[in-house]
Structures are given as C-alpha cells and as structure tokens.
# Entry
Amino acid sequence: MGFDRRAFLKIAAGASAGIMVTPVPWKLLDDVSIWSQNWSWIPVPARGASTYAEVFSKMDPFGVPMKIRKVGGLPVRVLPLPEHPLGGGLSPLSIAEVQMLYSPGRLRRPLLRGADGKLTEISWPQASKKLQDELKNAGGKAAFISGDETSSVTEVLSAFANALGSEDMYLMPSEAQSAAKAAELMGIDARLGYDIEQSDHLLAVGANILENWGTVLRNRRVFANSRPHSFRKDGGEETGDSLSLVYAGPVQNNTAAVAGAWLPVYPGTEGILALGMANMLIEAGKTVAARDFEEFKALASAYTPEKTAELTGVDGKKLEAEVARLLTAQKPLLIVGSSAGGGAGPIMAGVAVNALLGNINKPGGLVLLPKAAKVLKGASDLAEIYRNDLIKFFEREEKPALLLIHEANPAFALPNAQACAAALKAVPFKVCFSTFMDETAALCDLILPLGMGLERLDDVETPYGSGKIGYCISTAVGRPDAGVLNTANVILNIARRLGKDLGFELYADILKAKAGLYGKGGDPLAGGFAVESAERAEAGAFSFRPEVLGKALAPDEARGKLRLAVYGRASLGTDKTGIPPYNNKTLRADELAGSLMSVLLNRATAARNNLADGDKVSLESGGGKIVARVRVFEGIINDTAGVCRGFGHTALDEFSRDKGANVMEVVRPVPEPETGLNFWAKAGVDIKKA
Amino acid sequence: MEEKTNCTESPACRQKCAAALLPFLGGFIAALVLGWLVIPSLLFDSETQPLLFSHATHMKKAGAVCLDCHSVRSDGSFTGIPQNDVCMSCHNGILTPEPGQGASPVEKAAYQAEKSFVENYLNPGKPVPWRKHQYQPQNVFFSHPAHFQKCYTCHLTMQGRLNLGTPENPQKLCATCHVSLEKLDRDAPVETNILTGYSSGTLKMSECERCHANPGHFYADGRGRTFANNACFTCHK
# Structure
C-alpha cells in the first residue's frame, strides 16, 4: 500500500476528528479570544510591591489630606488619611486625582503662540528665556494672579512682583478674601477660624460646610463623629447628637439635606439674617464691651424680627426658635459664608453675632488664628494681597504689559466671565502656569505646564475655615516623566537671572525654612510633613463698625425678575480642573440632560413666571445669557432661580466640555459699599422661555 | 455492470477495508496524542520559583495559617505575596538546623533554600522575585476582604453543608479558588500562556460562577437572583 493522495486525506480526516476530542481547539479558541483583547494601548497598572505616601491635595481647595498607594513607583489609588487633623474621608475631586494624572486635558509641553495665532510646542529652556525677556521688558507693568491662597508659590510671586516694582499682585476672589477684609474692618489683626470640633450647636448661614465651604472633610468628620448612635450596632443606648446643625440658605443643598433644620433665605440676605439675630440677642440681654457697641445696637434695632423675616424670606417663628437655640446652647457657633462672592459685610455680621454669644477665642467658638508665616522678606502679607480686588483690575482700562497667572482660571471663574475673558485678551502678553488646557490657558500667549499636586513639591498653610493653624508639605509622588516644572522654581530662576534677589534659589529651601518657623524637627521634605497648632491671636481693639455694616448690608433694589442663587457641587470639580471623568457618572438626568443643564425653580415661582417643569428657558442679565431647562424643585426659596456652578466649560477635556452653561456669564458683580470689594451674592436674572 | 458483493463475506475484502481505515486511525491517534500530551505543554512557558518554598513546612510544622503571611491591608487591598518584612517576623536568621550526614535530600534542600533566602535576600534587604501563580485579569474587580466577609456571612453557620473554615483560619475558603498548597513541599512551576500572558492558575469566569451563579445560592423568590450578586458590574470593569 503506497502513501497516495487518498491516504493523506484519510490521515487528515482522522487527525481532524481526533483533534476535536482533545482540549486543543477549545483552548486555542479561548486563548485567542483573550489574546485579541491584549491591545498595547490599554493601560495596565504596573506590577510590584505597594508603597504609600502621605500628601495633601492641591487640586481640592477644601483641605484634603490623603494617602497615595503606589505600585512600581507609580500612584494607583487615593486613600483617606483619617489620622490627619483635617482628615476624614475623601472628596469627589481628590479621589479622582490619580485618574486625572492621565487626563487628555493635561498640558505636557510649554506652548508659545506664534504671530499666526497658533500654539507651537517649545522646550522648557526656550519658554523660560521667553518669559524672562517678557518680564524684563514689562518690569513694573507686569501683573500677577495666583489661584492658590494656601501655597508659598503665592509668596514667591508676591516677592517677585514687589522686586519688579509691580503693585498688581492678586489672588482669585475667595471666601478667605472676604473674611480677611471683614477682620481688617473690625480691627482684628488675625485670621478667622471656626472651632466646630468643640461646638455643640452650629448655625451655618450660607456656608455649605459639608460640600464646598471651609475644610469640608474635617467638617464632615466632626458632623459624623457627633452622631455616635449612627454606629451603634451593638444595641447600646443611643447617646444623641453632640452637635446640632442648622443650615440657612436659598437652596436645599447637601448640608441642608442632613442638617436638623433648613431655613430658606433669599440669596444675598445672609448678613441681614445675622443682623436680625444680633438684634434679638441684644434684646435678650447680650452685650459686648466694644467702643461702638451702642451704635451697633442702634443699627441692629432696625432689623426687627418682622423686618428681618420680610427681607430674608425666613419664617419669623423659625427665626425666633433659632435664636432661642443659640441662647440655650452651651457652645453655640454661627458661621456666615458663601462659596465665593458673598462680600465682607455678612461675615462682619456673623462675627458680631459670635461676639454677642461670647464665643470669640473660646472652645467651640469663633477663633482668631495668627497670620501665616512668611519667609521671603520682599513678599507682602496675604492680608495685603487680599486688599487688591481682581475684578477691579479686569475692569481697569489701562492694561498691564504682561499678566502671569498661576493655577487660576479667571476667564471661566470670575463673574461676568465673558467680559473678563475679553479683558484678558486685551493684555499684550499673557502667560499661565496651568495643569490643564482650561479657558484661561486657551487665551494665553505662553502656556507652561504645571504639575498636578501629586507631581510637585508644594505646601498648604491653614485652609480657610480651619479652627487651628496647620502647615503641611506635599512631596511629588506622581509620574517623573510628566514634563512639568514648579512655578516657584521657574520664577526664582528668572529672578536670579534678572538680578532680583528673593533670598532663596530653590522652592524646596523656602519650604524647609517655613517648616522651621512652624517648629517641627526632622526632614520636612521626606514626605507626610504636617504640623498643627492651637495657637490663638488676640482680638485687639475689636469694633463692630456699624457705619460700614449698615451700608454694606443695606437692602437694595432687585437686579432682575428673579434672584439668582449660585450653588456648587463638589463632584463638579473646581474652575481649574473641570469635571473629573469619574464624576460624570454622578450627574443625574435632572441636572444635565444632553448639553442642557437645569435651573431650579419652586412650583410657585415657576407658576408666577408661566413656566413648567422641562421648559427650555434663557436666563439673562446685563448682556449675558445662558440657556437651561426648568426643574421644578421645592428645595429652593421663592422668586429665586438656582443654578449650579461648574458647568459650561468650553476648554479642558471631553468630560467637562459642552456640558450646560457657565452661570458666571450672567452673574454681575457690584461694589460692596464701604468694604472696597466687589461681590455678587445679590445677583439677579430675567427668565423667559427660549 | 459489475455485480455488487457483500464485503463481509470475503476475507480479502475485509482486509482491504481494514487497511483502508488505517491512515484514518493513525491520524486520529496522532492527533489525540498531540492534543492531549504535546500541544498543551507547548502553549505554556514554565518558570520555577527562585527559591524552594514549602507551604507544607510553614503550615504543618510552623502552624501558620494563610492570613499570617497573605494579609489584608488597612485600605482593604490584599497583600498577595508577602514581602521580606513579613518573613522577618520569624526568620531573623536561619531557623532550620544544619542537616547532618544522614539527612534526606528534602531536608538538605530545605536548609539550602532557607540559607539562600537569608543570605541573598533577607540580609541585603532585596525582595525575592517570586513568580505569581495568579494575576487578576485587568477586566475585573476582585476584593479578598469582600469575599471573606460575604462568604462567611452564611457559611459559618452552615458548616455541615459546606465547611469553609473560619475567618481566623480561612484555609478552606482560600482553597476554593487557589490550589491547596498545604501538602506541597515544593511550589509548582509557574506556567504562563504564550498567547494570553496569563498564568495557568488564573481563574476563568466559570470558576467565579461556581458560586456567583450557583443555584444553591438562589433566593427562594424564583427570580434567579443569588446571594452572591451575579450582575455583570459586580465583577467586570
């Protein structure tokens, strides 16, 4: 028998039949299906042992210490740091920090705008030389904006501005700025803090303390710890709340949702509510040994319960009940605030109420914190920088020759955002240090990539709202190949080349010197450096300043058909970061449907304006216009439109862009009488069907 | 036209038919041998561990339980293979007595392995490059603590039906998914699939479904829901 074609076919047939009763075809089919999913572009975490680093979030401005788990030297996970003085859980922004290291909106290389308007990549030495030349030419006509009030980078920029002879050093408007102005006007040579840990009754007026006001994680931890019965699974006796919380504000936000009571008040009337309460406390016999107490008493007496109720919209009986609770609590505390733009007047009224409650510098009360330590001799104090109003700067006709912006997004975040963007465009040379290609970076002539908090050495000094002095140094734990530099080192280098001696050559040396001032041994740059101090400042010649308060809080005419309540949501990130990709999942359909966001109206307000749930409407004010969809929601006070801030980015990445509209386009700032600040808590809008 | 004959009646014809089937049978048998014995071994690269490690010695002689070395971190993540600092809690030097002349090859090998570990890795502070038997596939989540907690929620009280040990000594629960190493004097070589890059010990989805889709886990509501949630998003990213 020979081996012919027929024999070959028979062998092949036998082999085919045989192979089918072995695992090979099925195993190969399975393996190929897995192999086909092994694309090289799928990010795969490194393999290796886990290490940990303690850092402080520089992205989240609300005080978030955190622990980073690294594998193979790369960060893979963000964890809470509950043992830290400001620690607790994590915020929706901080938890996304590792993910955002890889954001498509990240800037990786310096970009220079050419004569044709197009951006081209340049090297860091080229960028540094260009910036040096421009700064040299601009000299005292250079202006500086910092978006990070807790970092020593602001001190470096301030020292450099002063060395150049520039008076234009600004911080982005913030609650800390309003509080600094309030303290200054009342003769308090210190920073305001709130000892909520030891308080037993907290009335938060406008301050969304569990979402976006002050040291949010710490606030949440205190709130959670004050409710031990929520953890009693052993059947033990419930001990009750050790801290009662009441929230007063125009929108039923997350703080209102968990507070014992929510008092709806019109936006921008928080100060009037505090003044009305001050009057009732004085009526109840409370007094303060201050030189102008009698004048203040006279001013407050005009805000009777009836008038206060009428002006603020709060129910008169509820107001009386809340004042009674303040009077009966052992350690009552009042916090007046806003997310930004509330002005100094309401905070002054809040300080006045706390003074009447006798809790200043007392456990559980309003505490006065010493000013931030400073190591650069040529730098201005934070309080001095806060005096410069950024909104006035943008309204000024004479533009600086150069504007340097560090980690701020004024083209998106400031009220009347489009006008600010136009003013920004008019500056001959604009340079920004930015992590992401945000709205401001998109307008700049030189864009310098700034590392995220995880990628840089930086510090955090006492975030606003804290009850204690705190100083933390955060070391780089992120990607070493990110192509980013630290703003402070770039500026220190340029200063040296321009012959301006700032006293330090490296940012690391500044932080070491500062750590020494806060008094803790060891290597502050070794990681996890954190100092806490319960030191208090003296109140000094405290005065109520009724002549300022009276004008700053005076009711004025309506600025539109409806009052505008701008509220924030932590999951929408910040003006600088946009919406973290993770958090897109948290947006509900009634907040954002397609590209249309919601405007909150209660049923009565909607009916008065002939609107119904789901109607597409336009909100207009002073030439600005945004479009939204009506969401009828009973968690908002009458005659008020509630709009969430953080939507409407036109730059950044796909996770933030083209989602809703930027409410700051219809917010118009006005000068706050007597305080010298611009504020926008009393903004109004006209509403109509679109 | 040729008349058809019945082949079974003719021995020559039967012989002819059998001969005709031989190539088919040859191919069939060759394929079986290749498919069962040869090809599967060609699909995997085999690597031995850098050191001889005996789970049996650690568990039987030293009385260790799984969680003594493979623990859960405070953040809830699983430590996997222990690092040197865990080993140092016992191995502050060579613990095995030096084997005498009459020692068995196993005893000699164990001594040499521990000596090598202490001198080459522990003292210089160098991590041992252990090869992992099971890397978690990238497309799924898996939490060891969640399984410890969830499985024991019921199984602690129903040991007669399926004894999974105790939270303090979860060896039987571990062995539900991992190879039981209690009796192994030498760790098996790590076999890595040349196509997929996964090791032969990597769990397939069917292994997960032994519990997640087990009818014994179904609620009595007849809706096919299980105590071990079997929704896609429970495991898949």
